[in-house]
Write a structure and sequence with these properties.
Its main location: nucleus. By secondary structure, the protein is of the alpha+beta class. Helix content is 55%, strand content 9%. The protein is globular, with a radius of gyration of 16 Å.
Length: 184
């Protein structure tokens, strides 16, 4: 789901950190409450970009080749053009300044079946924001930052208009995610 605007990104980030640090049995409930991938939507260029990262993370988990601790953090890793896990989480995860958030939940096949409305209710308990259509994503994307992270300065300047430049950036971002596991 795509949330915009989000009014509690710092609180979400802190909840994720607290849940990850805690070893107590009581923390299991909090870990389950934030058992999502929280992705800064300003760095997602298209639905295909996000879906490709999700697919790569699920594939890595199914093959036992996760490079991060969870399938949810693996999505962030897949989105980042470098192989630095810490950088991926810092760049693509929720931050104190996140305004738009893609929230993804991956459930394994042995998990109890939850309806979409159940998952939506769980997400709304964590994220203070409005759910908007994915059609809004292109308006929320920070194209300059995506261009910077993918080091596309000269290539983008060669495009004649903003629409072509954005299509090029999206193509590079999607291809980068799709090829990341092959390049390892």
């Amino acid at each position: 789901m795509l949330f915009y605007p989000v009014s509690n990104p710092a609180k979400i980030k802190q909840r994720i950190i607290d849940a990850a640090k805690s070893k107590a049995h009581e923390a299991d409930e909090e870990r389950e409450a934030v058992n999502f991938s929280f992705i800064d939507a300003s760095l997602i260029t298209s639905r295909l970009h996000l879906e490709t990262a999700i697919n790569q993370a699920i594939l890595a988990e199914s093959q036992g080749s996760l490079r991060t601790k969870t399938v949810h953090s693996e999505i962030l890793f897949a989105l980042n053009p470098t192989n630095n896990i810490t950088e991926a989480i810092r760049r693509y995860g929720v931050s104190d300044t996140t305004k738009a958030l893609c929230v993804v939940q991956i459930m394994n096949s042995s998990a109890t079946t939850a309806s979409i409305s159940d998952v939506e209710i769980k997400m709304k308990k964590v994220v203070n924001g409005s759910i908007v259509s994915f059609d809004e994503l292109a308006k929320l994307t920070d194209w300059n930052t995506v261009e910077k992270y993918h080091k596309l300065g000269n290539e983008v300047k060669e495009k004649r208009d903003a629409q072509r430049a954005r299509a090029f950036i999206d193509n590079v971002a999607v291809s980068s995610v799709a090829m990341k596991s092959v390049m390892q």
